[in-house]
């Protein structure tokens, strides 16, 4: 059975590689259509160029950007409103346009916590994506953005309690809150070690974040074996939408 087409929606350049780089590479390697929508940063910035490099490594096509400013980096999109401050209806409409244009079988985004760190842009991306995947299938909503299209499922990139402590020790700055979910909430545990080279390469392509010591930089500083242990598994919570005839991901939970 062919792998379903996949559209990932994340807040910042690098989130796609860190949260879902393995699954993106897996689907691309299987011949499925894959793409990424990024909510923040402008197309003419250095981080957008790094995003393009990361997506080439993952096989996820060219960047698709909503063009809003990062909540903590106004220079990310000069003259544009912060994503968190943009009118909700406008943001949903922009994302619906991408969903209808790409027509994915499944959509992947941040969980309701916004991942381990709970970044406000991650939280807002979850909200906007959750609304957009429903709206995209309704013909009377945003009729000027293309023909309706309903993905079959939404997958939320998350972290179970059982893995959070080890991850947080390396990935979350000391003193910051850390958010994870009960293990039983996780519906897909994906071993992405066969695509580890692509995933790590994509993470390290975000050179600005490596240089400033953000999460890609902290991963870059680890010994290769430790780095591999931290990023060789991805976790997701599935949310079923209106069913379509699309095939489902061949993701086999580990024991």
Automatic annotation (TrEMBL):
Name the domain of life this protein comes from.
Bacteria
Which keywords annotate this record?
Zinc
Keyword Zinc in annotation: yes
Entry protein name: PIG-L family deacetylase
């Amino acid at each position: 059975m062919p792998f379903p087409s996949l559209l990932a929606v994340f807040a910042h350049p690098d989130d796609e590689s860190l949260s879902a780089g393995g699954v993106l590479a897996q689907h691309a390697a299987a011949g499925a259509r894959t793409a990424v929508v990024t909510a923040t940063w402008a197309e003419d910035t250095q981080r957008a160029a790094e995003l393009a490099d990361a997506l080439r490594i993952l096989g996820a096509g060219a960047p698709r950007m909503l063009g809003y400013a990062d909540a903590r980096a106004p220079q990310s999109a000069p003259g544009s409103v912060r994503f968190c401050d943009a009118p909700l209806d406008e943001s949903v409409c922009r994302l619906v346009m991408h969903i209808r244009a790409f027509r994915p079988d499944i959509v992947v985004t941040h969980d309701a916590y916004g991942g381990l760190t709970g970044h406000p842009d991650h939280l807002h991306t979850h909200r906007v994506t959750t609304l957009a995947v429903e709206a995209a299938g309704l013909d009377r909503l945003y009729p000027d953005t293309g023909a309706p299209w309903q993905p079959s499922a939404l997958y939320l990139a998350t972290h179970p309690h059982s893995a959070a402590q080890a991850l947080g020790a390396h990935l979350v700055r000391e003193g910051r809150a850390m958010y994870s979910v009960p293990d039983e909430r996780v519906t897909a545990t994906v071993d992405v070690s066969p695509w580890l080279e692509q995933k790590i390469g994509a993470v390290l392509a975000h050179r600005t974040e490596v240089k400033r010591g953000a999460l890609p930089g902290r991963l870059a500083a680890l010994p290769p074996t430790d780095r591999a242990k931290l990023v060789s598994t991805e976790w997701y919570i599935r949310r079923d939408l209106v069913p379509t005839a699309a095939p489902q991901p061949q993701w086999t939970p580990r024991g």
